[in-house]
Amino acid sequence: MNDIHIKGVHEAFFVPTVNFDSKTGICELEGESYLEETIKFYTPLFAWIKEYTETVKGPLHFNFKLSYFNTSSSKCLVDILDMLKKYQKEGGDVEVNWYYDDSEEELEEVEDFILETGLDINIIPISEEQK
Amino acid sequence: MVKKKEKYDFSLYEYHNLMNQNILVSYKGPIDERIMTVIGENILLVTNDGGDKAKNKIFKVFMELAQNVWLYSAESCKLENGKSVGLGTLVVSECGNSYTFVTGNVVNNADVVPVIEKCETINSLDRDSLREYRREQRRLANEGKPNSGNIGLIQVALTAESPLDIELTPVNDDESFLSIAVKISKDNFRNS
User: Fold this and answer.
1) pLDDT single digits (tens) B28-79
2) What domain range includes position A61?
3) What is the CATH number of the domain that holds A104?
């Protein structure tokens, strides 16, 4: 199974950095997500998670470090979290960390992702991570 | 015979003076994602109080409001790349302790009722209920608008921590001009 590596870009659109590693199950989404075609960008990421959870069936450790994402990206992020929740329900080993920049609003948004998907997410202030 | 010079029937001076009234940025024309990014980043240059968190808030509000024009304007034009984008107007002004963002575009009367209803719902909800509404509406996204999260206006109200001020002006029997304004108090930058 292939890994996914996408280098983040901040131009007219903001492409997040993506590193999905099929050997370790460590997956990172970092930077900013504001895309020309949001669903087109996220579809291969959904496909990767589907393949990994159906064939490799190893642990999945997700780290979200997004400083900005628009509302259409947020829909795709919820879709990813839904897939992780489904895998967890089926017995998969899933850990999700969400790094945020101490803003109350972002904290609320992640809390809403937890309520929306039923998935446990470790919310970690970036300042704490840097200590 | 020398052709008589036609008088240009528009006073740029008056327009300029009008635009001087606390207006930091104004734009009228096609609005697509590329234009939004350029204007959004320019807005950050002229609203530079409050640090990174304030910038994030301002940028988020601007991008969602502008995207609304891009997706829902009844007036559109074709760009060089063949892509059709919405036409609209954006204004950012500063008055005392707040910034106001206003977007306006022509809408088909047939399409405007759900937008007005959504704005009224947003304005009637407290913050917790608004967050619940965002969760619920996000689940309904992608129906008909593949790149829409269905929650842009809800996000604007949550980020700005302020109600949406909507105004509908009839243009003709079929169309109206819809403007949506939202205020961001600079006090919010300290709390965010």
Assistant:
1) 999 887 888 888 888 888 887 667 777 788 889 998 998 888 878 999 888 8
2) 4-129
3) 3.30.750
- Kindly provide the b/e burial profile for residues B39-69, where b requires at least 16 CB atoms within 10 angstroms of the residue's own CB: bbeebeeebeebeebbbbbbbbbbbbbbbbb
Length of chain B: 192
Q: Which ipTM was obtained for this model?
A: 0.90
Q: State the total domains in chain A.
A: 1
Please provide the size of chain A in residues: 131
Instruction: Please list every residue in chain B whose beta carbon sits closer than 8 Å to the beta carbon of residue A37.
Output: 146-147
Q: Which residues in chain B are closer than 8 Å to A125, comparing Cβ atoms?
A: none
B131/A108 CB distance under 8 A: yes
Closest C-alpha to B67, from B113, B22, B100, B101: B101
Cβ distance of B57 and A105 shorter than 8 Å? yes
- What pLDDT, in 10s, does the model give residues B95-142? 888 889 999 999 999 888 888 999 999 999 999 999 999 999 998 866
Tally of domains in chain B: 1
Distance CA B87, CA A45 (A): 33
The CA-atom distances, in angstroms, between B5 and each of A83, B1, B2, B9, B87 are 68, 12, 9, 12, 31
Q: Which of A27, A25, A5 is nearest to A15 (CA)?
A: A5
Angle between helices B51-72 and B33-46 (to 10 degrees): 150
